[in-house]
Amino acid sequence: MANRPGSNIGSGFITFLAIVIVVAVLYVAKAVLLPIAVAVLLSFILAPLVIRLQRLGLGRVFSVVIVTILSFSAIGVLGWIVTGQIIDLAGQLPQYRQNIRAKVEAVKVPSGSLLGKATEGIKEIIKEVTPAQPDRAGAIVPATGTDSAPSATQPTPVKVVESPPNAFTIVAAAVKPLLGPLARAAIVIVFVFFMLIQREDLRDRVIRLMGQGRLTLTTKAIDDAATRVSRYLLALLMINTTYGVAAGVGLYFIGLPNAFLWGVLAGLIRFIPYVGPWIGAALPITLSLAVSEGWSTPLMTVGLFIVIELLSNNVMEPLVYGSQTGLTPIAILLSAVFWAWLWGPVGLVLATPLTVCLVVIGRYVPKLEFLDLMLGDRPALPLEARVYQRLLAMDQDEVFQLADEYLKEHTLLEFYDHVLLPALAMAERDRQRGELEPRREQFIYHGLRDLIENLGERQRSAAEKSATSAEAASPGAPPQERVTGFVSSIMCIPARDEGDEVAGLMLAQLAQFEGLAAEVVSVQTLSGEFVELVEQHQPDFVVISALPPSAIMHSRYVCKRLKACNGDPKAIVGLWTVADLDKARERIRTCGTDRVVSSLTQALGQLRS
Questions:
Q1: CA-to-CA distance for 367 and 363, rounded, in angstroms?
Q2: pLDDT tens for each residue of 261-276
Q3: Between β-strands 570-575 and 596-597, what pairing exists: parallel, antiparallel or unpaired?
Q4: Domain boundaries in the chain?
């Protein structure tokens, strides 16, 4: 029984309502769910290390303890060093104020332009933030340089001196801002520890929760998600670590202060998709403008980041990424915006791994298939449907581009059989339903003729170049015979419509490439005329080309007419893309032939035999 439209609308509304509720829960319970999400992703990274230690003979608990201690100790040491570098940098910044002022003064722009007004504004800001300098008598002279003496009638300033804070107040003020991050870090460490220890038990519980009857499907989904996320995170960690080390070493030799800090920040910020590398490079470039008296250091800093970014994108990423994440670029951007809105900066870092998990869920859960369709990198339409859609849109250039991409890894016969014939069958079905406008119909058939002719010329050119190269490599070998000016031995007859003729053109072209003589009768030829042509040329084979949905009916009619021909030529019926070939063969056999094929490959096999 078919589903009613109302039931589909109700199911879609329930799915939409469920998504809204889930997003609301994720937003409201951010404080609880965020540490758990970070712990899950860290466990994906650390699980392979734990498994490797277990294979070396260490127990699970001992392996988890070692990996957890070493990992979080390394993170803690790195955080401590970075904090020290930040404090040191904050102490040095006042020394670079004069360099900034000199570079701003050196910028010569017209005063009336927009850039000139911006420059003047920056200069005024620098004057405002410059601290006042004491004169020789100890009085404070404003930075603006005013020399007016203080008035005798001015009131005497009163200064309230507070009592110095005790040691407990100082410690409390220093520790209070750290309590929140330390508590969240402790929660993450505890979750990671227990997730690594009870990895199999947690997986069993997830399988039981999703349904014990779908054990195979759930296991595949969990393994797929774990593999994708683990490989992505490990590859990203390796690339970003290499990127940060290269940036830190390069900045050290350039002479930029706190090069270690900028290298670490460049590697960490690069976890943010797309915008991370720009942010990581902007910070040291800005500092190089402040610390250098000339322009050589900023230019070398910019050049350094350009070089390592090019090497990272074109060498490291293709080498390290063994498999793709399964996301499209637009999906990565949308996920970054969504998770940043939902969970802030941490959500921005977790966006890609979390979206990978959603895509895997959509791939294995039918009701959530739209997640894989909207976010996954798999084509939304099969290639034959994409070709037909481009033809409907009258985009001939895109059709040629799709053909070129497919032919890079497949043969011309495969392209005709698996792409063009199904696309042609779609056009024939729409034409018989009355859904094709005359101008689109003509464009489709003319476009396919042009494509077939173009691909045939390329094939002939490639074959001629190959033959020429072979003759040049073996000058003593006899030249290959070329078939020219021969009488046709294969005649392709369209059963009724122009689509049948286009399919016959594909077969005739492929037969010619194999050294067979072939020609195609025009669809405008009347039934009595093609009978005369067959009697006149006496071909070895007559191939009847027919496309569904009326392929059997029309081909039976042509077969009956051919039985009246003198010489009784061998007939092959091509019911292109027909699914039930055996049933079709039974219906055609009554017309005097059992040579029935559904693909060009089968037709060529019949012709060879």
A1: 10
A2: 788 888 877 777 667 7
A3: parallel
A4: 13-105+171-197, 331-375, 383-464, 490-608
Cα-based torsion angle of the residue sequence 150, 151, 153, 158 in order, rounded to the nearest 10 degrees: -10
Burial class of residue 579 in the structure, from the number of CB atoms within 10 Å of its CB (0-12 exposed, 13-18 middle, 19+ buried): exposed
Burial 311-339, CB ≥16 within 10 A → b, else e: ebeeebeeebeeeebbbeeebbebbbebb
Cβ neighbours of residue 505 under 8 Å, at least 6 residues apart?
A: 449, 452, 492, 520
Q: What is the DSSP string of 102-122?
A: HHHHH----TTSHHHHHHHHH
The CATH number given to 490-608 is 3.40.50.10090
Task: Tell whether pTM > 0.90.
Answer: no
The per-residue pLDDT for 498 is 87
Same topology, domains 383-464 and 490-608? Answer is no
- Least confident window among 320-324, 345-349, 537-541, 565-569: 320-324
> Do you know the residue count of the chain?
609
Instruction: Kindly state the tokens that stand for 263.
Output: 């290298």
Higher pLDDT, 328 or 323: 328
383-464 CATH pick, 3.30.530, 3.40.1350, 1.10.1240, 1.10.357:
1.10.1240
Asked if residue 549 has a cis previous peptide bond (ω within 30° of 0), the answer is yes
Share above pLDDT 90 across residues of the chain, in percent, rounded to a whole number: 4
Quick: pLDDT tens for 555-578. 888 887 777 665 566 788 888 888
